[in-house]
Design a protein that fits this description.
The protein has 260 residues and is of the alpha+beta class. Helix content is 28%, strand content 15%.
Length: 260
């Protein structure tokens, strides 16, 4: 196998850049596996079959490798999956609380200092005959509703995972290299839900957390400060007073543009 120092440096730089694309794109693990196999195959091919060939052949070989990479990148795109309320594997469940519509159970943060209740319905899904109408009270449920994942975000233009990752790096500083983020948040008209963060001492916010931002708000990336209330720019129809609960939900704003 004949390889020059220049090619080895070029190969290493290419591998790092393409790996960064996969990480920013939140591609699945099997995509990473195919990427590593493709790298190994191209390196061996370049050092054997293409080593004695002309520059044009070597260029075609590299172009073929890039085509294979982009095919793998597309095929291993992150699936649409619900976003967990906390970045903890097998989080500890909270105690069960009771609201007007039924019982709720959330999950605890890594250190146990914050309880998160994600995806609490505050109105019926605004679909069908309820589209463009005032929010209607949610249906009661039986048993304990486990609130460990965020509800779908509202209908909107979806950014690419790479754009969202760069936003987390440059703006929100929440990006982490982890195999657990290979997902795209679901999107639906059925998005009238609340997210609640509660400490052991006082409530962070009984309010509607934005589920329409493109940069992670509504997925736990942005949390309200202690004693604050945060509202969605599109839906302010429901608010909880401090110390209250979902059972006290009341309409605070009647604006038809906020529904649906």
């Amino acid at each position: 196998m004949k390889t020059s120092i220049g090619f080895i440096l070029f190969f290493a730089l290419t591998a790092v850049l393409l790996a960064a694309v996969l990480e920013l794109g939140r591609n699945t693990l099997w995509g990473w596996g195919l990427f590593v196999l493709g790298l190994a195959a191209y390196f061996i091919l370049r050092g054997t079959v293409l080593a004695e060939r002309s520059f044009l052949w070597r260029l075609l070989g590299f172009a073929g490798f890039l085509l294979v990479f982009f095919a793998v990148f597309k095929l291993s795109a992150p699936p649409v999956r619900a976003v967990p309320a906390v970045r903890v594997k097998n989080p500890k469940p909270t105690g069960v609380i009771t609201v007007e519509q039924g019982k709720l159970q959330g999950v605890c943060s890594a250190d146990g200092s914050v309880e998160v209740f994600a995806g609490i319905p505050y109105a019926k899904p605004p679909v069908g005959e309820l589209r463009w109408k005032e929010p209607q009270p949610p249906e009661p449920w039986e048993g304990v509703r486990v609130c460990d994942t965020f509800a779908p975000m509202s209908m909107q233009t979806r950014n690419s995972p790479i754009f969202d990752s760069l936003s987390e790096i440059a703006v929100y500083h929440t990006f982490r290299i982890t195999p657990d983020d290979s997902r795209i948040a679901p999107m639906s008209e059925d998005s009238l839900y609340l997210n609640v963060w509660k400490t052991a001492v006082f409530l962070l916010s009984w309010s509607l957390i934005c589920s329409t931002s493109r940069f992670g708000c509504g997925r736990g990336a942005l949390r309200p400060r202690a004693g604050s209330e945060a509202g969605s720019p599109h839906r302010h129809g429901c608010r909880f007073p401090h110390g209250g609960g979902p059972g006290r939900c009341r309409t605070a704003r009647r604006d038809r543009s906020a529904y649906g």
